Amino acid sequence: MRLETERLLLREMNEGDFxxxxxxxxxxxxxxxxxxxxxxxxxRGWITRKIERYKxxxxxxxxVCLKDSGxxxxxxxxxxxxxxxxxRPEIGYHIRxxxxxxxxxxxxxxxxxxxxxxxxxFGEIYSYMKNTNLPSQKTAESWGAKFEKTxxxxxxxxxxxxxxxxxxxxxxxxxxxxCMSHSVFPTPDIEKTAExxxxxxxxxxxxxxxxxxxxxxxxxxxxxxILTQSNGQKVVPNRELYGYGGDAYVIVRDQKALQNEYEAxxxxxxxxxxxxxxxxxxxxxxxIDGRWIYFGIKE
Length: 299
Description:
8 helices, 2 domains, 2,3-Dihydroxybiphenyl 1,2-Dioxygenase, domain 1
């Protein structure tokens, strides 16, 4: 799993992250709202549990790294937590002290939020913290969560609960939502193409690799692309086959926000956002197989 934002890279943790993570979880100031500061054994156990959760759930707390250097500065991600007696999906984050107050927690948590709503069936996503942890509450608000309640936790202290519903997320993201397209894409390497659409373009994949005609369905908002396994022939895009034209057109209202997202994820933008002579506002990217996918709307 890999998420990219304008400044950050979120990836799965590994044993080699011990020293970087120890600087975060072993910092008494960062952990002052926890029951204890992590020692070396606890940090190693933390990494081991995250790796196990990736295998079990497909998600967990991921390493937060600076994109320009690869340096790990904390962790952020989605976990299942017991919140006031009920297991809930929760966004958590820890950022190294010298990297705080630069918006990294908000940036990482926002990426996790979007990934969760696009790839998981959850109707709500939560964040919870000690009622005295005001910075964490402000971070929860910054990625869109709203205060829901407080309750007395197992330690006899007040815990604040914040929540963002899928409906509220969709309403806020509505202008960037992909609205319409349905295309079938034959591809010589169905797994490689599916991985690209998932990791770079933010599509959720549903595999039907055991079907007689094996295929993978890709979903994002109201758009569906279907990948089929070709007989090994190279994809010939329409511009090469006919001399012009794209291979799919996706209706989206906020093209600029989507273009920015895809640039941050590392997509290849071949035509930046512009107004065409046929009165569309659009941009074009080239996918891993060479297809040109248009994103826009008629003005």
